[in-house]
Write a structure and sequence with these properties.
85 residues; three-stranded antiparallel β-sheet; mainly beta; globular
């Protein structure tokens, strides 16, 4: 689990899990984002041993973030996780 505290309100968090030789679409259901007040928790289900990349993106709720009518996701951080079971 990864926890963050928001210093300003954000409209959306997106977590994306990656693993070598595994299609990213097969890993989509293994990340869950929970927001409670100003705390964001990202739960990850690592289904097998190996090295994973976890990318976290955010979307601002401010109108200043608009680009041609579309809000863009901003890459927030990246984790490299070694899983042993």
């Amino acid at each position: 689990m990864v926890c963050f505290r928001m210093v300003k309100p954000l409209a959306e968090f997106v977590a994306s899990l990656h693993k070598n030789r595994v299609d990213d679409r097969n890993l989509q259901g293994h990340c869950q984002t929970l927001i409670n007040g100003d705390t964001v928790k990202i739960l990850v289900d690592f289904y097998e041993e190996g090295q994973y990349g976890l990318d976290i993106y955010t979307r601002e709720s401010s109108p200043a973030a608009l680009n041609g009518g579309k809000q863009l996701l901003t890459h927030c951080c990246k984790y490299l996780v070694n899983v042993r079971m």
